[in-house]
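Q: Got a minute? One more chain.
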Amino acid sequence: MNVFAWKDRDRLLHLLTPDLGLITANARGSASMKSKLRSLTQLFSLSDFILIERQGRYTIRSGVLQESFAGISFDLDRLAAASHAAEAFSDVARNGEPHRYIFDLWAYTIYQIANGEDPVFAARLATFRLMVESGFAPMLDACVRCQCEIAYPCQFSFRAGGLVCEKSDCRRVGDEGIALSEGAAALLCYIAKAPFNRLFLFQVSDFVREEASNFADRWLEQKMEKSYRRLSLIDQSGFRFEDSPPIKSN
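A: Always. Here it is, folded:
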């Protein structure tokens, strides 16, 4: 999830594990070009490690690389998306008890970011599902106040945590949020409930993508009570790596 230089040739790794949650491990000598651990300790790679634990501190003894996801480092969109998702997943894993769902969701997320057509959108939707799995599921299929059916387009209240219908009794001061179309609400409902192995199997319009992206970002920041800025440069510039012109060679 993260890699830090340590001493002369060591690396400190933040590892997301299925059973221990997020841990810090020392990979001694892994920064050396000759180290057998070098390829296993690259950022966002998936490896099986043999760890030594002493007084709550972990050291990597050996390991086997399962997937490097090397392409992420050469694509600005994928790198930004992976960094955004890793920050959110690390925050949840760091502040709670170890849960297998965090590891499993991260595995599907990093694969989609590495191989999918829209890694930035995948990262945003994955963090929304992370919030749902962590107990922060919004009400998206009925009015949060009266539980009646919603007419679209409708208003989502971040204060109330759900959609709010047009009834005067349901509208309250401070409910100002964002408008959601039926398509965006349907997509978010799907992301909240779909099995992990089908999480990214959908097709939506650019308009729905923008709505769902804005919602996912606000929901994440509200529930985690912090700002996430890894994607801000891409959002502000509107630049996508695949939009850049091809490099001509002589």
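A: Residues 76-95 form the longest helix (20 residues).
Q: Perfect, thanks.
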